[in-house]
């Protein structure tokens, strides 16, 4: 497949339409990233997605692309509402895994003397790790309210304020969610996990703004040099995983029922407007709302954890939501296709919505600068704040990358970490880390990921995002 790759420009390559592909597949990347990208089957997965019925334009892969279930992680695909499909593999198991950025009125020098205490406090306030459970024990009926109301449920129950909701994608509440399509098994898995971080690549990071690229946009987002920021990265926990698991069984039967050609069984799907397609969309939306609520509650724990350490300075923290994005989601959106407005089902799996300026779905205070885009890196380097562009609306259905993207499998990372004191290595860089296990530290070590700066260079070079600010970590808690 590498041999057939065609260069469109310095940041965009194309896999030509061949065989059963309905459209070409496009990879956003710089030339020096291609060897890593073609080290696994992710490009083939992008080509496989192009075989699904009703796909519009291209099958897209972002520069953080790597192998996933069915769709590559870092994949984007839009499908015609009338004759296209919806696929659980295009969203993934961690429905609405996403990122929230918080800003404060503190600066770096305010927290450096107490950074270890802050990280310890975060770790003690926020349940993390495999199967972690929190202090909230909801009834089945209350859980169903969470699945319908999302972050709005959290605010109504004292976790944050209405101002938080204005800065969340979909205002923290996906319409069309139907808890009746969520199995009892999924509900039971999620009941005790609300307000928990989970495991794997999920984290809470405290750091600071170390570089500004666009003063005007940074100012509009309330960001300035040396300002203390926090990032929350987690999703829908066991509930979302089970919704996906349950849906895959239904979709395998649906693909057979509707005679859909699958180049890979993991791409099982159903027509968007079919009963199976609508049922998945409603269940997925419920999982989306659980994740929105989860991050809102964790934000409350973060506020409490920081206040507990800062003491007399707690009044000056003034922690506010900059923005929150989902990066594992399918949504019905209107886009311009061949000069006409068209409703499509956009799958973003390990990809972020990046709507350009003046789109009505962007919070009014940010509307003229474009949607904020949050790109976390690994725990040893940087994270970025970008904004969406008109080019993204024209090229990628308003989509961009979502993070650094894995470079090594978890097994390979574990082997590479043997005999190393990763905590110590990071401390020597001025980064204090608390993790639930040594295994997590090994799996998530910085070298396991691509350099997020290279990923951002590619999407900025392609014009589908604009750099605003760079954030550097000082402390991290991992699941």
Features:
single chain, alpha+beta, eight-stranded mixed sheet, seven-stranded mixed sheet, 16 helices
Describe this structure in words.
- The radius of gyration is 21 Å and the shape is globular.
- Helix 4 packs across helix 11, helix 8 packs antiparallel against helix 10 and helix 10 runs antiparallel to helix 11.
- With 479 residues, the chain is α+β, with helices and mostly antiparallel strands.
- The chain is 33% helix and 25% strand.
- The chain contains 16 helices and 19 strands.
- The strands form 4 sheets. Strands 7, 8, 9, 11, 15, 16, 18 and 19 form an 8-stranded mixed β-sheet that branches. A 7-stranded mixed β-sheet has the order 1-2-3-4-5-13-12, sandwiched between helices.
- The longest helix is centred in the middle third of the chain and has 36 residues.
- Strand 12 and strand 13 form a beta hairpin.
- It has one domain: tRNA-splicing ligase RtcB.
């Amino acid at each position: 497949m590498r041999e057939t790759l065609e260069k469109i420009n310095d940041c965009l390559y194309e896999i030509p339409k061949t065989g059963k592909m309905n459209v070409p597949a496009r990879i956003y990347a710089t030339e020096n990233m291609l060897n890593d990208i073609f080290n696994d089957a992710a490009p083939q997965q992008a080509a496989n997605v192009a075989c699904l019925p009703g796909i519009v334009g291209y099958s897209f892969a972002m520069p953080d692309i790597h192998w996933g279930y069915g769709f590559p992680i870092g994949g984007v695909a839009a499908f015609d509402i009338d004759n296209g499909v919806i696929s659980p593999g295009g969203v993934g198991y961690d429905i609405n895994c996403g990122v929230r950025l918080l800003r404060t009125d503190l600066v770096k020098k305010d927290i450096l003397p107490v950074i270890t205490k802050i990280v310890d406090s975060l770790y003690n306030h926020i349940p993390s790790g495999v199967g972690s459970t929190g202090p909230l024990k909801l009834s089945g009926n209350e859980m169903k309210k969470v699945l319908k109301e999302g972050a709005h449920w959290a605010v109504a129950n004292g976790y944050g304020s209405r101002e938080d909701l204005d800065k969340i994608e979909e205002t923290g509440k996906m319409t069309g969610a139907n808890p009746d399509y969520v199995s009892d098994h999924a509900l039971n898995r999620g009941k005790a996990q609300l307000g928990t971080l989970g495991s794997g690549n999920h984290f809470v990071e405290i750091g600071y703004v170390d570089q500004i690229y666009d003063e005007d946009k940074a100012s509009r987002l309330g960001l300035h040099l040396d300002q203390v920021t926090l990032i929350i990265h987690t999703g829908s926990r066991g509930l979302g995983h089970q919704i996906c698991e349950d849906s895959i069984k239904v979709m395998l039967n649906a693909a057979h029922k509707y005679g859909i050609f699958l180049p890979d069984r993991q791409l099982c799907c159903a027509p968007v407007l079919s009963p199976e397609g609508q049922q998945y969309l409603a269940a997925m939306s419920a999982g989306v709302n659980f994740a929105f609520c989860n991050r809102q509650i964790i934000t409350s724990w973060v506020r409490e954890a920081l206040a507990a350490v800062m003491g007399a300075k707690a009044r000056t923290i003034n922690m506010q939501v900059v923005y929150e994005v989902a990066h594992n989601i399918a949504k019905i959106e209107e886009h311009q296709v061949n000069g006409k407005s068209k409703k499509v089902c956009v799958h973003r799996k390990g990809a972020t919505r990046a709507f350009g300026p003046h789109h009505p779905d962007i919070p009014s205070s940010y509307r003229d600068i474009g949607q904020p885009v949050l790109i976390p890196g690994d725990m040893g380097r940087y994270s970025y704040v970008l904004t969406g562009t008109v080019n993204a609306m024209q090229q990628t259905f308003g989509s961009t990358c979502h993070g650094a993207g894995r470079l090594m499998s978890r097994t390979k990372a574990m082997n590479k970490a043997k005999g190393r004191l990763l905590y110590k290595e990071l401390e020597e860089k001025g980064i204090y880390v608390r993790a639930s296990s040594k295994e997590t530290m090994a799996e998530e070590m910085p070298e396991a990921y691509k350099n997020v700066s290279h990923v951002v260079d590619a999407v900025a070079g392609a014009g589908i995002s604009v750099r605003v600010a760079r954030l550097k970590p000082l402390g991290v808690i991992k699941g």
